[in-house]
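Hello forum,

I keep getting stuck at the same step: I have a sequence, I want structure tokens, and every attempt I make locally crashes halfway through. Rather than fight my setup again tonight, could one of you with a working pipeline run this one for me? It's a single chain of 179 residues.
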Amino acid sequence: MTFHNSGRRRAAILALTATTALLIAPAVAHAASSTTCLGSSTITYSPGLTNTAQTVTYTETDTLTPCVSTNPALNSGGFTGSITLPGASCLAVPSLTLNTPYTITWNNGAPSTVNLSFTDAIAEGIEQVTGTGTVTSGQFQGANATLVWVYLVPDPLQCLANPGVTTQVGTLTAQVTGI
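Reply #2:
Ran it on my machine without issues. Output:
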């Protein structure tokens, strides 16, 4: 009789384990989506930055690779964009910019548009620009994003005369974390 009861207990435990696995499996399937990327950033200024304030076209090309993602098909991304900066110069004070759209095009063809707010800090010859915000559309919609660019501050001697500072190259780290 004891053998028969332990068999029923074993069957009940197996049934409970299978039911629990079925209940837990959907939660695992809907785990938070995220990606973390390293990369590089190249900025060009036209005309070049000098110590004299002027209107400058700022073009940025960012390459995000390698990426580690919860989406195994996603392993790289990129951004290219241009804006006009009135009053730009080597002497401009770092500032805070709010709600700037930044669209990453991923290698799988899906974009992510992030609405970023930027801070810009310069210390000991290093400029660090940090953008934080929310993915407003595309892949990872609703996720939080943090992007950090690091550049060497341009050589002050380049700022003294034309053509000025025409390029900056730096590193980029991007992290997108879903909910």
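Strands lie at 34-49, 54-69, 77-88, 97-106, 111-123, 126-138, 144-152, 165-177. If your local run keeps crashing, start a new thread with the error log.
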